[in-house]
């Protein structure tokens, strides 16, 4: 389970998500959607106003922003109370975008590296979570089942900007995913370069550095 799951799941029933109450949460209001889309610090991602009949019910905005946690969009109503997720509510789907911080993915459990939307991705511990790496961000898609997670990943698109030929929806990542700061330092010392590789992901998934945006 990634650090985003551990941090964000604790917020799910902290008064942010109406779906954790006894009554189903309504779809997100137009006003709240506009507010969330006004976030401009970096590109956010979503799977649309609904995904396979699961409505978007809540979205973080700039006023909720915590750089450590990132920005989360919440889909559906509380499936069950989960004592394994900081006492929070397990939702059908959450999509979190966060500035990427170098870290090893070994603690996630099983890691299956692949590509979605042309960028590297990590299918974590059987598929309930998939983490994509694009531009300067990581996008965590966490579903109640691997099927929901995978479908949401296929539907991912930009939330707060329009893609263009000059700035596509999923630019290649500016970093090597799954490599910790310690591994980066060791590799730089060994090679004497600024490039880095590590035990993960495989070499064919290593991204090419891109200019910062």
Descriptive account of the structure:
The protein is α+β, with helices and mostly antiparallel strands and 213 residues long. It has one domain (3-170). The protein contains 4 helices and 12 strands; from the N terminus they run H-H-E-E-E-E-E-E-E-E-E-E-E-H-E-H. It has helices spanning 3-8, 30-37, 146-155, 181-191, and strands at residues 45-46, 50-51, 54-59, 71-75, 80-81, 89-90, 93-99, 111-116, 119-124, 129-134, 137-143, 157-158. The strands form 3 sheets. It has an 8-stranded antiparallel β-sheet with strand order 2-3-4-7-11-10-9-8. The protein has a two-stranded antiparallel sheet with strand order 1-12. It has a two-stranded antiparallel sheet with strand order 5-6. Strand 8 (111-116) and strand 9 (119-124) form a beta hairpin. The longest helix is centred in the last third of the chain and has 11 residues, at 181-191.
What share of residues is helical?
10-25%
* H and E order: HHEEEEEEEEEEEHEH
Oligomer: single chain
Number of H/I helices: 4
Low-confidence stretches: 3-16, 82-87, 193-213
Beta-strand content bin: 15-25%
- Main pleated sheet: 8 strands, antiparallel
Number of domains: 1
Please state the average pLDDT score: 80
Structural class: alpha+beta
Give, in spatial order, the strands making up the sheet with the most strands.
2-3-4-7-11-10-9-8
The count of strands amounts to: 12
The best one-word shape is globular
Question: What Rg, in angstroms, do the CA atoms define?
Answer: 17 Å
């Amino acid at each position: 389970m990634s650090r985003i799951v551990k941090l964000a799941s604790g917020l799910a029933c902290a008064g942010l998500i109406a779906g954790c109450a006894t009554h189903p949460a309504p779809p997100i209001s137009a006003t709240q959607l506009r507010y969330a889309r006004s976030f401009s610090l970096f590109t956010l991602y979503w799977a649309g106003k609904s995904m396979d009949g699961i409505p978007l019910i809540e979205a973080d905005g700039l006023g909720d922003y915590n750089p450590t946690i990132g920005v989360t969009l919440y889909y559906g109503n509380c499936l069950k109370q989960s004592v394994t997720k900081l006492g929070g509510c397990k939702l059908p789907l959450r999509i979190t975008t966060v500035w990427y911080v170098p870290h090893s993915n070994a603690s996630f459990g099983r890691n299956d590296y692949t590509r979605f939307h042309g960028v590297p991705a990590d299918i974590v511990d059987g598929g309930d979570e998939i983490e994509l790496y694009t531009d300067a961000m990581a996008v965590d898609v966490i579903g109640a089942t691997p099927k929901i997670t995978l479908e949401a990943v296929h539907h991912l698109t930009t939330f707060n900007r329009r893609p263009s030929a000059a700035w596509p929806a999923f630019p290649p990542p500016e970093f090597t995913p799954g490599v910790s700061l310690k591994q980066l330092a060791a590799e730089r010392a060994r090679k004497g370069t600024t490039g880095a590789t590590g035990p993960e992901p495989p070499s064919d998934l290593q991204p090419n550095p891109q200019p910062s945006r």
